[in-house]
Amino acid sequence: MRFDEAYSGKVFIMSRDTHEDADAIIYGMPMDWTVSFRPGSRFGPNRIREASIGLEEYSPYLDRHLEEVKYFDAGDIPLPFGNAQRSLTMIRDYVREIIAKDKFPLGLGGEHLVSWPIFQAMYEKYPDMAVIHIDAHADLRLEYEGEELSHSTPIRKVCENYGAENVYSFGIRSGMREEFQYAKESGMYMAKYEVAKPLAEVLPKLAGRPVYVTIDIDVLDPAYAPGTGTAEAGGISSKELLEAIHLIANADVKVVGADLVEVAPVYDPTEKTPIAASKFVREILLGWVKK
């Protein structure tokens, strides 16, 4: 399936009818084949779309309306259930098509391993790209229980394949001792526990660079986002994540793509998690997608 093929499912609010004149493409990656605790994030993309119907189209934070941004929701990539390697290849090829047409890829996960093939495609086009990683978990493992294709490994893969000095992690509060030691020694940047304050300090250093942003919803405290596979106490508020999104929007960086992952709606009967996620997507569209 290509992003320009017909899709008959639910779409994010105010999605354009066609992809031709869209500046951004929203796409889902319904994969949770490698999760180590609770599955269910494969249902995240569609619940985020469904929750978007309750959004106002106007953002008072950015004084912009969704009608001012041209985006097309291409639906979910039909990933083969249980086949991690084939799924990752499909995601990489899919994103390659999007960026080949100079469109902004905005992915909805799915587990965090889905970001790895996106990074691969993005670095082909932007070899000087920086990665902003907002997450509760370091994701710096080499493997999990002997499996190298794990949702706990994507940031380590970026460090080792594209340079640790290009990775900036925020909100980290969970990981193995060895992961935190690697962060200290590798040359990557890691801010523990907080997001907005350290991000404001780092963004001027990234001025002029292409930047890709990956957000794991579990950076939020479970009080704000219980619907995720590996919830971690001690997280940030929805307000702080919105502040971080707006800091990036107002910074002198070129955001070339983004993803929001790990929404697992089955663990949140209140639906506060997909509701929050849909608002973050709105702010990303309004703040990061440039003509």
Written account of the structure:
By secondary structure, the chain is an alpha/beta fold. It has one domain (24-288): Ureohydrolase domain (Arginase, Chain A, 3-Layer(aba) Sandwich). The protein is 32% helix and 18% strand. It is built from 8 helices and 10 strands. The chain has helices at 44-51, 84-100, 115-125, 154-163, 177-186, 196-202, 238-249, 272-288; strands at 24-29, 58-59, 64-65, 71-76, 104-109, 130-134, 167-172, 189-192, 210-216, 254-261. The strands form 2 sheets. Strands 4-1-5-10-9-6-7-8 form an 8-stranded parallel beta sheet, with helices on both faces. Helix 5 links the parallel strand 7 and strand 8 (189-192). The chain is globular and about 50 Å long.
Percentage of residues in helical conformation? 25-40%
CATH-defined topology: Arginase, Chain A
What string, H for helix and E for strand, traces the elements in order? Answer: EHEEEHEHEHEHEHEHEH
Quick one: CATH superfamily? Ureohydrolase domain
User: Largest beta sheet, briefly?
Assistant: 8 strands, parallel
- Total domain units: 1
- Please tell me what the overall shape is: globular
Structural class: alpha/beta
Low-confidence stretches: none
The order of strands across the largest sheet is: 4-1-5-10-9-6-7-8
Please tally the β strands and state the result: 10
Strand content: 15-25%
Number of helices: 8
What is the CATH C level class, in words? Alpha Beta
Q: How far apart lie the N and C ends?
A: 26 Å
What integer is the average pLDDT? 95
Radius of gyration: 17 Å
Q: If classified by CATH, what would the architecture be?
A: 3-Layer(aba) Sandwich
